[in-house]
Design brief:
Enolase-like, domain 1; 4-stranded antiparallel beta sheet; BirA Bifunctional Protein, domain 2; 15 strands; 326 residues; alpha+beta
């Protein structure tokens, strides 16, 4: 088994690396990696329904869709992620217990009461520290999971705390759980990098055929290409979301504004705007201009900035109006 200690912290790169290794390597692999602050959403989720978009924009948190299912998770440098990629026989490919067992064994040898609970969670004393997801490609199974070690819990809570929106869709919704950091349960003091090295050492001891592997320049080029063509693209991270309807009302100095629109592949298909605001010109012109625009803050701002906005929504700023669409 190839054991890869990935030092990159770019979430676009790391999610691309998972897919690249799964599809381009033949060997079983184990990988440890960390991401800069980011939200990783499941393949079948409606991204905007899972994140606090204002907090994400203000704090420059990257949002990346992974190729596996499951719910949204927050990553920072205090969160260690692991990936197993193994050749599997038909019928035994999706097995959360099998792939998390080595991680539990490591933690239990460190004196923690770590258990597998629910559908795909690892817990300590009933509190979740790891969520897991899987993806099958041909005879290869990719299993990856989070290991909350010293994550900033306030950021985790704020980034995933959705604003009071109303989304109507068929996407998979995340289930929020009580969480804990592994560092709070260790009998010996260590930082996340020491913890990473301990995990890697013990995993390599568990598998006699294991050997350390470093990405070659060719590997890096391939991963970067996949990152740039897919994982860093709005079309994948937001546009891939299922069709959804959106409703929200905001109160402004110029009056209340109520938004009703639907989105498909990340693009606004139709929109109606109601409220008790005043206007000089018919707002239907603004509504029509937004059809075909990405449901994305900068794209909407760019479109609305073409208008003398006060003529259509008196005493309402473009930025304030746009914030109501998220």
């Amino acid at each position: 088994m190839l054991c890869i200690k990935d030092l990159h912290t770019d979430p676009y790169f790391n999610l691309a690396a998972d897919e690249y290794v799964m599809k381009n390597f033949k060997e079983d692999c184990f990988m440890l990696w960390r991401n800069d602050p980011s939200i990783i959403v499941g393949k079948h989720q409606n991204t905007l329904a899972e994140i606090n978009i204002d907090y994400v924009r203000e704090n420059d948190i990257k949002v990346v869709r992974r190729i596996s299912g499951g719910g949204a998770v927050f990553h920072d440098l205090g969160n260690l992620n692991f990936t197993f990629i193994r050749n599997s026989e038909e019928g035994s490919q999706v097995d959360f217990r099998k792939f998390t067992r080595p991680i539990l064994d490591v933690l239990q040898t460190m004196g923690m009461n770590a258990k597998f609970e629910g559908r795909n969670d690892l817990t300590i004393d009933g509190k979740k520290f790891s969520g897991n997801a899987e993806h099958v490609w041909k005879n290869r199974t990719l299993h990856h999971g989070t290991l909350l070690f010293s994550a900033v819990m306030t950021d985790l809570s704020a980034a995933l705390k959705v604003n009071p929106l109303k989304f109507t869709d068929k996407a998979v919704k995340s289930v929020r759980s009580r969480v804990t950091n592994i560092s709070e349960h260790l009998s010996e003091k260590m930082d996340v990098l020491q913890f990473r090295d301990r995990i890697m050492k013990q995993i390599m001891q568990m598998y006699p055929d294991s050997k350390e592997y470093h990405y070659t320049p060719e590997d890096v080029l391939g991963i970067v290409a996949l990152r740039d063509e897919k994982f860093a693209k709005w079309e994948w991270n937001f546009g891939y979301s299922p069709k959804y309807d959106f409703e929200k009302m905001i109160r402004t100095e110029g009056g209340s504004v109520e938004f009703h629109f639907n989105v498909e592949k990340g693009i606004i298909q139709d929109i109606k705007i109601y409220g008790d605001f005043f206007h000089k010109h018919d707002i239907e012109v603004v509504e029509k201009s937004l059809v075909g625009v990405k449901h994305e803050y900068d794209s909407i701002i760019e479109k609305l900035s073409q208008f003398n906005f006060n003529d259509y929504f008196k005493n309402i700023k473009v930025e304030e109006f746009t914030s109501g669409m998220f």
